[in-house]
Design goal:
- Two copies of one chain form a homodimer.
- By secondary structure, chain A is α+β, with helices and mostly antiparallel strands.
- Chain A has one domain: Arc Repressor Mutant, subunit A.
- The first copy, chain A, is built from five helices and three strands.
- A three-stranded antiparallel β-sheet of chain A has the order 1-3-2.
- In chain A, β2 and β3 form a beta hairpin.
- Chain A starts with 7 loop residues before the first helix and ends in a 5-residue tail after the last helix.
- Chain B binds a DNA duplex through α3 and α4.
DNA sequence: ACGATATATCATTATGTTACGATATGTCAA
DNA sequence: TTGACATATCGTAACATAATGATATATCGT
């Protein structure tokens, strides 16, 4: 039972997801959501720092790539991880921590 | 035993790896090496297509991020996957294929 | 030393990304 | 409806990346 190459279009989709996660700030957003579950943006802002507009832009990119989901609750917008792929990649990183540095 | 946030410097390193893999052509290079093992560049070129100089540039990026390793054997340069993280990410993608689309 | 093959690098252009500051929108409470 | 809070978007400058065509380097056989 040999492993076949994945379809090129699928590879390109996955490349987009990897690319979006391939940014320190966004990766920290993803990690925070993985550790703490659904979180409103202002809590992310307090935890991660930086300018409000910048956080919003990064959240938008993660949303576009369907890595996270947004849901408004009153004044707040709550963000949630939307793909188990993100958690899998994080866990892979956690396992490797120490081995790479 | 709760999971702690990964160190920021480590996160940034991993973000670089994800970013480098976040490109369709490079992702296909990584997949090919994962499926076929060590491979000389001209075989990759025949398999993946594109301009020779472009392949070389992408290989250089993957090398810089320590995703692959290069070893000259005579006229050829053989490339090998250098981090199990790449295989883990690929396997994650394989599991998810079909679920995303 | 020469030609052929394999790979890397360079210069350039086009395009995309990031961060910043400012401004706009949405929601609620008084 | 006004103010306060939460979030999103816009314009822009700095910077990074991608692809192309051309050229350079490396290795081998003759």
């Amino acid at each position: 039972m040999s492993i076949r190459p994945l379809p090129v279009t699928f590879m390109n989709q996955m490349a987009d997801v990897l690319k979006v996660m391939g940014h320190g700030y966004r990766l920290r957003i993803v990690e925070f959501l993985d550790l703490h579950g659904p979180t409103p943006a202002h809590v992310l802002l307090a935890a991660l720092g930086g300018a409000q507009g910048l956080l919003s832009q990064h959240l938008a990119k993660l949303r576009q790539a369907q890595v996270i989901q947004a849901e408004r609750r009153g004044k707040e917008v709550w963000y949630t991880l939307d793909t188990p792929a993100a958690t899998t990649i994080l866990n892979c990183m956690r396992k490797r921590q120490g081995a790479l540095q």
